[in-house]
Write a structure and sequence with these properties.
alpha/beta; globular
Length: about 280
């Protein structure tokens, strides 16, 4: 089923809907927060480090969060951040995500925690956000925007749905601003992309769509640690994944994780928390 998604987004949708990917992210990557973590030490639990990222981002929101806050999480995955925000601050969260399989797991976990009325899980793409103009106090995203072939359009859509004075906070695996041509091809081939964004790109796109920069935190060392930890966990859990994740997928994932680590160690990648605000008036 293609809802009119762009080819790159549709490729990502099909990938995350596959049994291999779903079981890998659910059983190995963290199951709830499937993004890069902030590590207190290299061997720390993926789950703990990943939840620390959510907490750090929430703490940075200038306007503060509360029961009157309406939040949009674009590329929400299994909804870990949405549940944290709804549980901790009483926010009303819309979890927009392209994978129907992930969304179903999200709804099940929300129901188990009696958060159905606080979190609205929506099947859709951030390239065309199904929401009215100026309808959210905060747009949130973690390691998702890279999956668009039209990242400037995504930033434009986010700017459209932000209320005046509202904030955008997100993370994304990015290439270095001075990344040499061609060195990221093994990474790009693995994730079926032609490019990655960069800090300079997102700064320019945000400014072009009328958003003002609040802060850019460069935290790239966590990207390298995270992919090393995921590789370790995948190797450790391999026997438990029989019948859930194919050997071919595991081998491709191990090779792909190595490409990410190598590119990060060579200084070709960046990762961090980017924070912008839509001005009032």
């Amino acid at each position: 089923m293609n809802r009119g998604y762009s080819p790159v987004v549709e490729t990502a949708r099909q990938y995350y809907n596959s049994d291999d990917a779903d079981n890998f992210y659910f059983h190995v990557w963290g199951g709830e927060d499937i993004h890069i973590g902030l590590y207190a030490f290299p061997g720390e639990s993926i789950v703990t480090a990943s939840r620390r990222t959510v907490q750090r981002m929430a703490d940075q929101v200038v306007q503060g969060l509360g029961p009157n806050s309406r939040v949009l999480d674009v590329g929400a995955g299994y909804g870990g951040a949405a549940r944290y925000l709804a549980n901790t601050y009483g926010c009303r969260v819309t979890a927009l995500n392209l994978s129907e399989k992930e969304n179903e797991r999200n709804r099940e976990m929300n129901h188990a925690l009696r958060l159905d009325q606080s979190i609205d899980v929506v099947d859709g793409s951030f390239e065309s956000i199904p929401a009215e103009d100026a309808s959210f106090d905060l747009v949130w995203s973690q390691d998702a925007i890279l999956h668009s072939g039209h990242r400037d359009q995504v930033i434009g859509e986010i700017a459209r749905v932000l209320r005046p004075g509202a904030e955008l906070i997100f993370t994304d695996p990015m290439q270095a601003d001075d990344c040499p041509e061609g060195v990221l091809q093994p990474v790009l081939d693995r994730i079926h992309l032609d490019s990655l964004g960069s800090i300079a790109f997102y700064r320019e796109a945000a400014a072009r769509h009328g958003l003002h920069e609040l802060e850019v935190l460069k935290l790239t060392n966590n990207l390298v640690v995270h992919y090393l930890r995921v590789r370790e966990e995948l190797e450790r859990a391999r026997g438990d994944l029989v019948g859930k994740v194919s050997d071919a997928y595991i081998e491709r994932m191990l090779a792909g994780l190595e490409h990410w680590v190598e590119a990060g160690e060579r200084g070709y990648l960046r990762w961090g928390i980017l924070h912008f605000r839509k001005p009032v008036g």
